[in-house]
Amino acid sequence: MEKDLPLIPAKRYFTIGEVSDLCAVKPHVLRYWEQEFTQLRPMKRRGNRRYYQHHEVLMIRRIRDLLYDEGFTISGARNKLQEIVQTERDKRRNGEVLLDGVDELGGTVDELDALSDTSDSELTETSTSTTLVGSGMSRQRLEIVRRELVEIRDLLAV
Fold first, then answer.
1. pTM for the full predicted model
2. CA angle (26 as vertex; 20, 31 as ends), nearest 5
3. For residue 48, is it within any domain?
4. What is the pLDDT of residue 3?
5. Domain stops at, among 46, 68, 94
């Protein structure tokens, strides 16, 4: 399923039309899924326009996979998503490290971990770090990016 769908651009918000194209699902189906899956809550702005975030696009792709490819019913997919969320909560509660897919990420998480443990002056000593610091990437921002990567990987690992 994922191979047939286009890559998700690096944007903060997506309109319902963009999500429809990215997930190969019609807009009216997305609106229906919002009613059925409580985890799916796009931001609404002027004129009740929906704006989806990256993690919601990933969730929609997962819902689509469960319904269309794996043959789940709506209630079965809802239960499966709830089970996935509960499993992730339990992992976090138990302090388990969620770095199962580090090999697939090419060590990116490890590199960001190493960078976040160093001071800003140490960061400027390496060429990779110079680029990050030169572009305004602070240790705090690197930590946020690292957390987002881990969260995205966890959503995709399901």
1. 0.58
2. 90
3. yes
4. 62
5. 94
